[in-house]
Amino acid sequence: MNAVIFSCSSLALHVKAAQEKCKTAFPVVWLDRKLHAEPLKMRESIKEKLKDITEGTDTVLVAMGLCGGSLSDIVFPVRTVIPNVDDCITLLLHKDNNPAFNLKEPMHFYMRDTMRIKPLLTDLVRRYGKEEGENIFQRWFKDVNDIDIVDTGVYDCHCKAFSDKAREDAQMIGAQLHYIQGSNLLLEKLFSGRWDDQFIVAEKNSTI
Hints:
Shape: globular
Number of helices: 7
Oligomer: single chain
Strand order of the largest sheet: 2-1-3-4-8
């Protein structure tokens, strides 16, 4: 297949690792991870980038989840293959071939190579001021009892630099810190063409 990858920039390390394992070298179109905060903006970005795919491309491989409707109501100009998961966390929690749309547990925050809690507070304070920003932050995390570090083997989540930051985040919200096993399986299946019930295959000129 003559494919191009559309990937959320938050999955850069995982996309690189999956391509290396699958011995593929598909070009990658990066989607700004900040757009996940507003799925309509992510959708518009995807629409614009689809207009620029080169002639001869027959397949778009989407290296992300459905993410709040970011891929809904888009007319795909070529065959497009998407992991059938709610977001990138569930994508990395899959360890076998059993379909599951959402593998996350309630009241858990999932941490991986590009996800931290402290920068969220910093951003909220910058946007809304100290008092309101801190109030929003407290509302977001008041029911979170556990922080789960997703170990996919792609990045070193056991190194001191990473674990120290994770402990700092856990202390900020009074949560317990755990390591849980994930994998890069879905991206490896996506890039190698092993599209089973864990994927949506949208044929040319169709929508989801």
